[in-house]
């Protein structure tokens, strides 16, 4: 055969990454939504390949934080004056929160943004990191860091929807996943905007139907995700006008 067994995992790791890269680039929104007049925030969706499969790194917010203490989220936060763009914000925040050096992230794309409960425009930035990355959580912001398979967000073992009232008083449903991390003997609840971004990322990369309902047209994922976002933005904008 002439091929040592050791070169196999490397070959498969490269192809797993390459496939994901190609899919993600099709969904790159660049700065298409950057000019919307909302305060800006960004999150980094850090992907890595472990045992031939894509995994995501997530954090647990410190219990001391005022906003959403103890919630699972991606590294990220509000834009600051020094940030050139959403990518800069995501990388700076990831460095502050988990010690991830910006040069260790291969940034692939920006996906369709979301709007959080504080009405920030939140841009998800997707990047690959090495599977050897050792997080150094900043205890003021992060109490835990964990890694989970991306595929869980289309084929979960434990899933439900939760009713959620948006800031406009509109009732909607959000994804809620429970993930048991056997390595750390802990269980994590991933829901809200974090779950929304993770599900979309998994849909983009795997191109498969999830085992639960999503509000996208899966045959036209690009246009339906952008339409969903613009409808959400329009409803927020209408409410702002009616409050004036």
UniProtKB/TrEMBL annotation:
Keyword presence, Hydrolase: yes
Keywords associated with the record: Hydrolase, Magnesium, Manganese, Metal-binding, Peroxisome, RNA-binding
GO CC terms of this entry: peroxisomal matrix
Localization per Swiss-Prot or TrEMBL: Peroxisome
Cofactor: Mn(2+); Mg(2+)
Keyword presence, Metal-binding: yes
Enzyme class: hydrolase
Database matches in PROSITE patterns: NUDIX, NUDIX_COA
GO terms for biological process, alphabetical: coenzyme A catabolic process; nucleoside diphosphate metabolic process
GO molecular function, one term: manganese ion binding
EC number: 3.6.1.77
Span of domain Nudix hydrolase: 38-171
Catalyzed chemical reaction(s): 3alpha,7alpha,12alpha-trihydroxy-5beta-cholestan-26-oyl-CoA + H2O = 3alpha,7alpha,12alpha-trihydroxy-5beta-cholestan-26-oyl-4'-phosphopantetheine + adenosine 3',5'-bisphosphate + 2 H(+); decanoyl-CoA + H2O = decanoyl-4'-phosphopantetheine + adenosine 3',5'-bisphosphate + 2 H(+); dodecanoyl-CoA + H2O = S-dodecanoyl-4'-phosphopantetheine + adenosine 3',5'-bisphosphate + 2 H(+); octanoyl-CoA + H2O = S-octanoyl-4'-phosphopantetheine + adenosine 3',5'-bisphosphate + 2 H(+)
InterPro entries reported in the protein's UniProt record: CoAse (IPR045121), NUDIX_hydrolase-like_dom_sf (IPR015797), NUDIX_hydrolase_dom (IPR000086), NUDIX_hydrolase_NudL_CS (IPR000059)
Biological role stated in the UniProt entry: Fatty acyl-coenzyme A (CoA) diphosphatase that hydrolyzes fatty acyl-CoA to yield acyl-4'-phosphopantetheine and adenosine 3',5'-bisphosphate. Cleaves CoA, CoA esters and oxidized CoA with similar efficiencies. Preferentially hydrolyzes medium-chain acyl-CoAs and bile acid-CoAs. Has no activity toward NDP-sugars, CDP-alcohols, (deoxy)nucleoside 5'-triphosphates, nucleoside 5'-di or monophosphates, diadenosine polyphosphates, NAD, NADH, NADP, NADPH or thymidine-5'-monophospho-p-nitrophenyl ester.
PANTHER family according to UniProt: NUDIX HYDROLASE, PEROXISOMAL COENZYME A DIPHOSPHATASE NUDT7
Assembly and binders: Monomer.
Family, as annotated: Belongs to the Nudix hydrolase family. PCD1 subfamily.
Entry protein name: Peroxisomal coenzyme A diphosphatase NUDT7
């Amino acid at each position: 055969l002439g091929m040592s067994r050791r070169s196999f995992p490397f070959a498969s790791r490269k192809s797993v990454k390459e496939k994901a890269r190609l899919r993600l680039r099709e969904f790159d929104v660049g700065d298409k939504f950057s000019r919307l007049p909302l305060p800006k925030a960004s999150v980094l969706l850090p992907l890595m390949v472990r045992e031939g499969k894509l995994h995501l790194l997530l954090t647990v917010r410190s219990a001391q934080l005022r906003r959403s203490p103890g919630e699972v989220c991606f590294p990220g936060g509000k834009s600051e004056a020094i940030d050139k763009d959403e990518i800069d914000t995501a990388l700076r925040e990831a460095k502050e929160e988990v010690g991830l050096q910006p040069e260790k992230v291969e940034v692939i794309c920006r996906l369709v943004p979301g709007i959080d409960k504080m009405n920030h425009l939140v841009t998800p930035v997707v990047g690959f990191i090495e599977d050897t990355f050792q997080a150094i959580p900043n205890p003021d912001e992060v109490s835990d860091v964990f890694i989970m398979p991306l595929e869980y967000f289309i084929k979960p073992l434990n899933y439900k929807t939760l009713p959620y009232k948006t800031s406009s008083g509109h009732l909607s449903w959000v994804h809620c996943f429970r993930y048991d991390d056997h390595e750390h003997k802990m269980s994590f609840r991933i829901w809200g905007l974090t779950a929304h971004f993770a599900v979309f990322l998994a849909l983009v990369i795997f191109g498969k139907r999830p085992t639960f309902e999503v509000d996208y047209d899966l045959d036209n994922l690009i246009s339906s995700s952008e339409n969903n976002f613009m409808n959400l933005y329009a409803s927020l904008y209408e409410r702002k006008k009616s409050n004036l």
